[in-house]
Amino acid sequence: QLHTPPPQRPQSPLPGSMPAYNTEPPHLTPAQTVVKEQARAQADLERDNWIHQCDVAVGLRQWANKLRFQGKHARAQKLLDEADSADRAAAAHRAACNSAAFLASNVGDQPAFKVDLHGMHKEEALAKLRFHCKHVAALAAGYAEGLRLDVVTGWGKNSGPSGPKLLPAVLSFLEAEKLVYWRPPENPGAVLVQIDGQPEVTYSTSPTF
After folding, report:
1. Cα–chain-centroid distance for residue 204?
2. Residue 44 and which of 12, 14, 18, 29 are 20 to 30 A apart at CA?
3. pTM for the complete prediction?
4. Chain segment 49-102, per-residue pLDDT in tens
5. Are strands 181-182 and 147-152 parallel, antiparallel or unpaired?
């Protein structure tokens, strides 16, 4: 779960924190057009889920207040806990909505770098990812739209019965550093990361790769 403050229910139109779509991006390839349309659909879905979870949280808190007045404190507290869970779900959907909307706006228009972590041990891969994020961030200072870092993790098919280890570790790192990312539905072994100029991230010292 993303650790963000409980979101307020978005009004219509949505707040400016969600990037607007470019209506006619130039020179998109057929593959980029597919990615753009998928990202638009994903952003719409995440926005609907975001609004729904906000409404759920509001309804649960209203119900909990009524129960408190009736002296049913234990039941009211349970509803408040459920409302907190709905807040966390809303925050996750909000982040996913922003990420998908960003991709839909910028696909095909943004310089991108690539780092392949496939087959690496988790600690080695995260060190390499930190190194690349740090140096792409330094380059991104010259681009108003930032830069994109394409991270290849693989599907984790060879990780054994415990499941993939590298992809969850990469996603946890990106969420901890509050970096916007997008997972293309057609390529579950890749993560596209938005890198702004000098983001506030706690990059550790890493060897040169």
Report:
1. 22
2. 29
3. 0.48
4. 999 999 999 999 999 999 999 999 999 999 999 999 999 999 888 878 877 777
5. unpaired
- Residue pointed to by tokens 């590298």: 166
Q: Which amino acid is at 102?
A: F
How far apart CA 54 and CA 182 sit, in angstroms, is: 23
What are the structure tokens assigned to 97, written together?
A: 């909505």
Provide φ and ψ at 148, rounded to 5°. -115, 135
Cα gap 140→136, rounded to integer Å: 6
Residue from 110, 105, 179, 199 nearest 147 by CA? 110
Burial of 73 (0-12, 13-18, 19+ CB in 10 A): exposed
Q: Which of 100, 117, 94, 62 is nearest to 183 (CA)?
A: 100
Q: Residues 111-114: contacts with CB within 8 Å, 24+ apart? A: 111/143, 111/147, 111/148, 112/147, 112/148, 112/149, 112/150, 112/192, 113/147, 113/148, 113/149, 113/150, 114/149, 114/150, 114/151, 114/152
